[in-house]
Design brief:
The chain has 4 helices and no strands. The protein is an all-alpha fold. The termini are far apart.
Length: about 100
């Protein structure tokens, strides 16, 4: 039984153009990948490596977003949002 995540990976990766690359991996890491393939978590090594790389890139992007969010001033953001709401409410028609 495939998880929902694996299913969507299969669907999305089907439509993505592929480029062949050569990788040098630690033997123990490759053994772990082969284990996952043997357990049918992935169809092949390529799919396993692609999924791992994609997952890592998504996590890095979320980390960057969180880091950028810490730079925001909550009081200033609330003030800006409240200002926008007042202007927006003035423009709404009455029901």
């Amino acid at each position: 039984m495939r998880s929902g995540r694996a299913f969507w990976y299969d669907v999305l990766s089907y439509y993505m153009p592929k480029t062949k690359v050569a990788l040098t991996l630690d033997a123990r890491l490759l053994d772990q990948v082969d284990e996952l393939v043997a357990k049918q978590r992935f169809r092949n090594r390529s799919q396993a490596v692609e999924a791992a790389l994609s997952d890592k890139l998504h996590r890095l992007a979320r980390t960057r977003l969180a880091r950028e969010a810490t730079k925001l001033n909550p009081a200033e953001e609330k003030r800006d949002a409240d200002e926008g709401m007042v202007e927006a409410l003035d423009a709404w028609p009455e029901y």
